Amino acid sequence: MSIIGIVSMKGGVGKTSTTANLASAMAAKLGPGRVSVVDLDPQNALHWHFGLSDPQTLGVCEQSLLDGDWQSVTQYTEFNVACLPYGDVSEIDREGFEALLAQQPDWIGEQLQRSGLNQDAVVLIDTPPGPSVYIKQVFACVDLILVVLLADAGSYATIPAMQTWLDEAASVRPRLGMYYLLNQVDRSEPLNRDTSAFLHQQLKPRMCPIDIHGDEAVGEALAFGQPVLEYEPHGQASLDLARLATWVIDALNR
């Protein structure tokens, strides 16, 4: 099993849409039954990208509090991606789940091992922005970290803190792959283009060589409950995500 963590230091960078759309692109290359996504963000938004809308369905938060395995909360989508939602829970349940994670640092990894996934499975985990107990859990079990950034001053300001996170993780797990991923790039806008180039220069060798360009189809696809590769397979974002999926698969196999 290969596990990918999608993280960010700030909200609004398209982290959840990147998780969903990258999972869809990887499923298109790997085939049915290979790719799953886990929502560890209490906003519980990941499932919307796959047209799953039942708010009553149990998710990983409540199921963990019930000491149940995650296999029973898996929802299968028409896009060859299995989705494990966070779940629509109360504040008390969220706090209880986070307390459980704080007490058991390897909880997420153990649950994934118990989830019934095949050894060739690929799991992408969406996390809330900023420091959290979820991030600590993800750093402990993943094979690859993708840090989603925008080519703007807000994201640039978060890099020192993120570098500290990554350096600490590398000291414990030196073989863990960690890369920055630029999202919503618009090279027709001079400041965005220049910032993108600067980030690529400054963040080598931790910079993913493939950027995801800004594309209105990403938001439109979400409105229709579809990954963007399903909604607009020949759009710029879809082409970028297909290339990114190939790069990620190669990175996992190195």
Structural topology:
Blueprint: E1 2-7, H1 15-30, E2 35-39, H2 60-65, E3 75-76, E4 81-84, H3 91-103, H4 107-114, E5 122-126, H5 133-141, E6 144-150, H6 153-172, E7 177-183, H7 190-202, H8 216-223, H9 228-231, H10 236-253
Parallel strand pairs: 1-5, 1-6, 2-4, 2-5, 6-7
Antiparallel strand pairs: 3-4
Helix pairs in contact: 1-10
3D structure, described in words:
This protein is α/β, with parallel strands linked by helices and 254 residues long. It has one domain (2-253): P-loop containing nucleotide triphosphate hydrolases (Rossmann fold, 3-Layer(aba) Sandwich), CATH 3.40.50.300. Helices cover 45% and strands 14% of the residues. It contains 10 helices and 7 strands. The protein has helices at residues 15-30, 60-65, 91-103, 107-114, 133-141, 153-172, 190-202, 216-223, 228-231, 236-253, and strands at 2-7, 35-39, 75-76, 81-84, 122-126, 144-150, 177-183. The mean pLDDT is 91.
Keywords:
254 residues; alpha/beta; Rossmann fold; seven-stranded mixed β-sheet; 10 helices
CATH homologous superfamily heading = P-loop containing nucleotide triphosphate hydrolases
Sequence of secondary-structure elements? EHEHEEHHEHEHEHHHH
Largest sheet: 7 strands, mixed
**Cross-sheet strand order for the largest sheet:** 3-4-2-5-1-6-7
Gyration radius over CA: 17 Å
**Number of domains in the coordinates?**
1
Q: What fraction, in percent, of the residue positions are helical? A: 40-55%
Residue share in β-strands: 5-15%
Shape verdict: globular
CATH fold call: Rossmann fold
Distance between the termini: 14 Å
Segments where pLDDT lies below 50 for 5+ residues?
none
CATH class group = Alpha Beta
